[in-house]
């Protein structure tokens, strides 16, 4: 069936399917250029307006950064809305899956820097993305990486200490430990943990923590980083799910053994300062882009 779009756009093919909508490649007949059209539902299964859809559109309209995908137009669709976005032919996920053409160390550094600069922009705007992962990091024809898919993004308010957020966010492999332990009072450091996992995946070629359940995910984190020390993260015992399950004590794995192909310790040092248990001890995005790795 032909997907509906204004006559200005000609749908060419479906290129993606996500939790929050389908994405199609189209051509803008007026400007003779490719665009991406994301079809999103306006109402949820209960017949209410989908807040995720509204938030995604409003946030994309609010931001203006070269490392965040541009929204060009919004139009009504048969089932909801169509978001016209700049066309990005590749994803970091696709690049990582291309075994015949692995990322060079220069590309890893460049993509990491672009990712962190996009995250810095969002955090300065008091926006949490909450789903940083390779599939949501798009790459255009000029090899520029941009953050996309803001269906889980939220404004956060540093002064609102009692504001609660859902722990059912982000893709499990990139989910921060405070969220895995049920925390609902979290902030931008959840994006920093995810960014560290993405960098580690680019360096290793495989995900850093690839659990199939939340419990296994947490077990993998503990086995890798070691049992968290309460003197380094005293708030841990107050997290909602802390006492629900006990894990064996672990000493952790040395970082250089996790990255055997890395000959420079500086890139491992950045990972080690992003993938940190206590959210307060993770580098901010602004601090991370000043790391010696990028000199």
Fold and architecture overview:
This protein has 295 residues and is an alpha+beta fold. Helices cover 30% and strands 18% of the residues. The protein is built from 9 helices and 10 strands. The strands form 3 sheets. Strands 1-2-3-5-4 form a 5-stranded antiparallel sheet, covered by helices on one side. α3 runs antiparallel to α5 (189-204) and α5 runs antiparallel to α8 (265-274). The N and C termini lie far apart (52 Å). The mean pLDDT is 91.
Helices, by number, come to 9
**Biggest sheet: strand arrangement:** 1-2-3-5-4
| SSE order | EEEHEEEHHEEEEHHHHHH
Overall average pLDDT: 91
Q: How many β strands by DSSP?
A: 10
Largest sheet: 5 strands, antiparallel
Instruction: Enumerate the spans where pLDDT stays under 50 for 5 or more consecutive residues.
Output: none
From the N-terminal CA to the C-terminal CA, the straight-line distance is 52 Å
**Which class best fits the helix and strand makeup?**
alpha+beta
**Gyration radius, rounded:** 20 Å
Strand content: 15-25%
Instruction: Report helical residue fraction.
Output: 25-40%
Looking at the structure, what is the overall shape? Answer: globular
Keywords: ATP-binding, Cell cycle, Cell division, Cell projection, Cilium, Cytoplasm, Developmental protein, Kinase, Nucleotide-binding, Nucleus, Serine/threonine-protein kinase, Transferase
Protein name: Cyclin-dependent kinase 20
Domain Protein kinase: 9-294
InterPro entries: CDK (IPR050108), CDK20-like_STKc (IPR048002), Kinase-like_dom_sf (IPR011009), Prot_kinase_dom (IPR000719), Protein_kinase_ATP_BS (IPR017441), Ser/Thr_kinase_AS (IPR008271)
């Amino acid at each position: 069936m032909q997907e509906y779009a204004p006559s200005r756009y000609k749908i060419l093919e479906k290129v993606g399917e996500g939790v929050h909508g389908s994405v199609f490649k189209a051509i803008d007949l007026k400007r003779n250029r490719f665009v991406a059209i994301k079809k999103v539902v306006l109402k949820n299964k209960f017949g209410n307006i989908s807040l995720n859809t509204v938030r995604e559109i409003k946030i994309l309209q609010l931001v203006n950064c070269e490392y965040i995908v541009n929204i060009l137009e919004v139009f009504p669709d048969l089932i909801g809305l169509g978001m016209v976005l700049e066309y990005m032919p590749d994803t970091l996920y696709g690049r990582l899956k291309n075994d015949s053409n692995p990322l060079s160390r220069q590309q890893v550094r460049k993509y990491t820097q672009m990712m962190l600069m996009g995250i810095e922009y969002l955090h300065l705007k008091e926006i949490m993305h909450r789903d940083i992962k390779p599939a949501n990091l798009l790459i255009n024809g000029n090899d520029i990486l941009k953050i996309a898919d803001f269906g889980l993004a939220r404004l956060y308010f540093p002064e609102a200490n009692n504001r609660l957020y859902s722990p059912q966010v982000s893709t499990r492999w990139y989910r921060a430990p405070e969220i895995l332990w049920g925390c609902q009072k979290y902030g931008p450091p959840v994006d920093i943990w995810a960014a560290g996992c993405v960098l580690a995946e680019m360096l290793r070629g495989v995900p850093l923590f690839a659990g199939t359940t939340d419990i296994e995910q947490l077990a993998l984190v503990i086995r890798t980083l070691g049992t968290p020390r309460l003197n380094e993260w005293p708030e841990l015992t107050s997290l909602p799910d802390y006492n629900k399950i006990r894990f064996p004590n672990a000493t952790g794995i040395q970082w250089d053994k996790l990255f055997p192909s890395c000959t420079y310790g500086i890139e491992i040092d950045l990972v080690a300062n992003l993938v940190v248990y206590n959210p307060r001890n993770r580098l901010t995005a602004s601090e991370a882009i000043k790391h010696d790795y990028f000199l």
